[in-house]
Amino acid sequence: MGAYILRRLLLMIPTLLGIMAISFAVIQFAPGGPVEQVIANLQGQGSNGADRIGGASSDFGGQGSSENSGYRGAQGLDPAFIKKLEEQFGFDKPPLERFGKMIWDYSRFQFGESYFRSVSVLDLIVEKMPVSISLGLWITLLSYGISIPLGIRKALKDGSSFDTWTSGVIIVAYAIPGFLFAILLIVLFAGGSFWDLFPLRGLTSDNFSQMSWPEKIADYFWHLTLPLIALSLSAFATTTLLTKNSFLEEIRKQYVTTARAKGLTENKILYGHVFRNAMLIIVAGFPGAFISAFFAGSLLIETIFSLDGLGLLGFESIYKRDYPVVFATLYIFSLIGLVTALISDLTYTWIDPRIDFEKREV
């Protein structure tokens, strides 16, 4: 097992390098970089706040020719000012040198500072992480809490009308995009056009600090209701069907027939023998399911409901071309995803010692 873990850890290095290299290459061709963002702001067309760009805007004012600078909207600006902006954002160096420095810094978890916020990238990510963790944790628990009993019920009623109509509902729910359902919930229940029952934005109310503990808990879940419903719509399908198929496979095995022949009750067979074996794959997949819920659907949902988490941070950073935040979050998310995949595999071997990854090729 040690050799397998070492191989997986070593494979993470080229995987991370590939992810970062492709993303870095794409960024090189994306229009509207941070230099152009500052120029647009100084020309009255942007929204990033030139006063946050480390004083670079204080040198603005000279008339000159910068038609050859390669930046849109830079006509009439002093070339020295454009050059200073490039130096400040690090664009005065060749792309390969910038990429190499970024990878070297990231390998030591030094992510620098945000271009447009006076805070380090790591502090910014840590500040936003509790909201996304909260969403990911609750959606995972909610998904497992409903999907597992439903999957077991579907396995016991395989082929019945209950199994048929619940499968139809699950498939339809899985096909509906979460962000579209979120907009529908806002229209119906958040004062869009019908009822005003739930808050439209934020994770807590403005007077949250003045509430008692029971009121804080109620307020917290009141704000979480619509985002969780929107996120959980498609989260049930995979776990429910996986649970059903896993239980069906176990129920049809010989040891179940033998247990029935010995006179054991159906509940004793189901929860004393079948449940333990059928749940191996479900339990082992929990780390991956949590990470998937944590990252996959948070961006649009957090943006729609104005939840100040990593999803909204990523969206705003891409929009503002805040590259240190964009690349740092990509690096951290990719690293966490790779480590979680390894943990999931190791969980399989811990739950079922018969599984041996040492005998398999990575």
UniProtKB/TrEMBL annotation:
Give the UniProt keywords, A-Z. Answer: Cell inner membrane, Cell membrane, Membrane, Transmembrane, Transmembrane helix, Transport
ABC transmembrane type-1 domain: from which residue to which, for each copy? 129-344
Which GO BP terms apply? Answer: microcin transport; transmembrane transport
Give the protein's recorded name.
Microcin C ABC transporter permease YejB
Lineage, top-rank taxon, reads Bacteria
Q: Which InterPro entries match?
A: MetI-like, MetI-like_sf
**Protein topology in the membrane:** Multi-pass membrane protein
Q: Name one GO cellular component term.
A: plasma membrane
Family note: Belongs to the binding-protein-dependent transport system permease family.
The answer to whether the entry has keyword DNA damage is no
Q: Where in the cell is it found?
A: Cell inner membrane; Cell membrane
Instruction: Enumerate the Pfam families for this protein.
Output: BPD_transp_1
Q: Which residues cross the membrane?
A: 9-30, 131-152, 164-190, 220-243, 278-305, 325-351
Q: Which CDD domains match?
A: TM_PBP2
